[in-house]
Structure prediction request, 294 residues.
Amino acid sequence: MSFSQYLAEQQAIADGALDRVVPGEAQSPETIHKAMRYSLFAGGKRVRPILCMEACRTVGRRVEGVEFAAATLELIHTYSLIHDDLPALDNDDLRRGRPTNHVVFGEAMAILAGDSLLTLAFQVLAQLKGLDAAVRCALIEELSVAAGTVEGMIAGQVRDIEGEKAEPTAERLDAIHRAKTGALLRGSVRMGALYGGATDEELAALTTYGEAIGLAFQIVDDILDIEQSSEQLGKTAGKDAAQHKITFPVVYGLERSKAMAAEQLAKAHSSLEMFGERAARLRQLADKIVHRDA
Prediction:
């Protein structure tokens, strides 16, 4: 199977799990479920669920049902995008090539849609079938830490907002993006490893991989915001510069930023050596993250 076929297959698996765990649009109250599904099924690449599922397969001791654990990562990611786009935060009206949630449903319903996706993620993890309670608790802890205020996604978002008025230093940049983007990507890989029954050594190796691709993802994101159009990105291009964001090109310049992404890719590859061919797809996913064009 080619890598593009593999990605399409994995996206379909993730979408199927999401469709099963999120109430349908006909479920009362209909408006909130329409708003949740509007953003959730707007054409996301499902990078985080796919990383989770593939990390689980790389460990390989337990894989059945992992797609439902993986789906919770997309619930959290989509909630963060809905809230990021609100006027009080990034104030954007385009996401994944479509009007943002608050443009379609209004600010109040967009806030509630994000809240609902966040809440549902932990319900899904608590109700996972066929897992020991200790594993379910470990998954809940991993996701809450990755999305939280102590070196998690929200910590990064807070630093990002505060950084708009601060001097763009390497230290501030690192603090923002290891948390804002990197924490959830790292958590995606770790959740897959935990679901699959990873040993301490395997978990450590996959954690290093997750940290490397998390940083690489944000570096490339910052580069694309400069080099690509809004049509190519599916969101408003040039927002980082307009809002005086601390980004990798601002701190390091464009060419050094590209070199740093390549360095993180090499680190991701080397971290997987112990898995041999079992990690072939994880290597391809790392390559895709760094060499993507949107």
Q: What stands out?
A: The first helix runs from residue 3 to 21. The mean pLDDT is 92. The chain has one domain: 3-291. The first strand starts at residue 94 and ends at 95.
